[in-house]
Amino acid sequence: TLYKRCNTAPLSERVARARWKMFGHILRSQTNAPAMMALKFAVSCDMRGRRGRHQTNLLSVLKSDLKDRGFDIMSDFDAVMEAARDRVGWRSMCVTHQFF
Question: Is 74 helix (H, G, I), strand (E, B) or coil?
């Protein structure tokens, strides 16, 4: 393919890899950091959504990615945090997964 010939990755894979790196940074941050507090609130909050088509947001994309990797962020939040603390394992999860 053209990507192999040019020795580059598709933009969708690069964005997904950057998203996972950012998610790992947030999970490894302190519990009183604003990003961690917002993530915990979004995970623990059980609010009903709006009417109409579901909007794609960062949390829904991360939930589906974690589901593909065998995690459920709603019930296994501590397990996801432990996986992020293992930097080598987290990096291999980010790199080796075929996104599209």
Answer: coil
Residues 6+ apart with CB under 8 A from 12: 99, 100
Answer whether 94's CB lies under 8 Å from 20's CB: yes
> What's the farthest any 2 CA atoms get from each other in the chain?
47
Q: Are 83 and 89 in contact (CB under 8 A)?
A: yes
Q: Which amino acid is at 84?
A: A
C-alpha pair distances (Å), 66 with each of 4, 29, 52, 63, 97: 27, 19, 25, 5, 11
Q: What is the CA radius of gyration of the chain?
A: 15
Cα separation, 76 vs 69, whole angstroms = 12
pLDDT tens series, the chain, 100 aa: 788 888 888 888 888 888 888 999 999 999 899 999 998 888 887 767 677 887 788 888 888 888 888 888 778 888 888 888 988 888 887 765 443 3
